[in-house]
Amino acid sequence: MSDNLARHFNLREDVTFLNHGSFGACPRPVFEAYQAWQLELEREPVDFLARHLTENMRVPREVLAAELGCGSEDIVGVVNATTGLNIAIQSLDLKPGDQILTTDHEYGALEKTWAFVCRRTGAEVVTVNVPLPLTSAEGFADAIRAGITDRTRVLFLSHITSPTALLFPVETLIAEARERGIWSVIDGAHTPGHIPLDLTAIGADIYSGNCHKWMMSPKGSAFLYVRPDVQGMIDPLVVSHGWTATSKEPGAKGAFGNSPYIDEIEMQGTRDPSAWLTVPKALEFRAEHDWWAVAAQCRDLAQETRARMEELTGLPPLCSPEFCAPQMVAMPIPECDPQDIHDTLYARYKIDIPVFRWQDRCIARLSVQGYNSRPQMDALLDALGELLDLGVTPGLRLA
């Protein structure tokens, strides 16, 4: 990767930032566009929010829909994927005894969402343990199928998992779920901008993803996609001016002239929509810099670093390369105090990377973006080698 790419970001020069997967990082030109929208809002708030907001909000929907292979009336802007999934999940008509089938690799916030919904509805979560290492799409599908019963109402999967950075092959299971009358709800928080995404081809009933992570728009920009024939059951989390008592049948119009699905989610009181309005600029930046080519280089560097770490530790990987998120890898490390390692990496080496315990494994989750470099990977491996006493230099006390 070219060192020139780092100059496009506002990241601190004294920190080796290897944690793009958590919150992303916004390029300077995109951030400047974000600030320009905020300034326009402050210069004439009534004109911005009362006269032109509906028109302005439509543009990111249209541009993003073209990027993601779906209709512009099927996608709506939300502040993050957790919010989008909460809107959809809390709209589902679940009853006592209904089952939500999911895996042991899901994001903690959504596990809490399902626990909340189950407490309210009497439904229950059924968690499948995905066998590791993940080396077969059919093996993955078989593990999920084994959990399906006649009470399964929802299939909830991450497309790219947060703790383990696995790329789940979800398409076949989504198609099978539809055949069985099971709603498919996909957590795509890490997917947009990370891998090419065609929402129509994937076929999920509900899919929510972040634009502020790998698409590199500002924080507070994400989307909720709902298939047209499912949109009628979606209710907003916040009832405000966008809500209407009119029919939600296909072709119905909402309070602001869009579909009720769009208007009820989009118009929920006074808020700053600047991050969402900047999504077209983020896509423009990516196109100008041929970011899919950049991403391919990042993938190679991530996989090379993963292999080097495996050689250093002797620990097996969580998956074969085709099931690894291209730019994000979960690297098993020897038994340790993960918080101690995390804190010392930052305090002593100024390396920002998540280190945590997942089930019975200690993991360092590496993200590689266009501003990263091979010398930074060398610095990470040297630091971990020292702290984990892997034959580099004796380091910290291990738990």
From TrEMBL:
Keywords: Aminotransferase, Pyridoxal phosphate, Transferase. Gene3D superfamilies: Aspartate Aminotransferase, domain 1, Type I PLP-dependent aspartate aminotransferase-like (Major domain). Residues 46-353 form the Aminotransferase class V domain. It comes from Pelagovum pacificum. This is Aminotransferase class V-fold PLP-dependent enzyme. The keyword Transferase applies. It holds the Pfam family Aminotran_5. PANTHER family: HERCYNYLCYSTEINE SULFOXIDE LYASE, L-CYSTEINE DESULFHYDRASE. GO terms for molecular function: transaminase activity. The keyword Cell wall biogenesis/degradation does not apply.
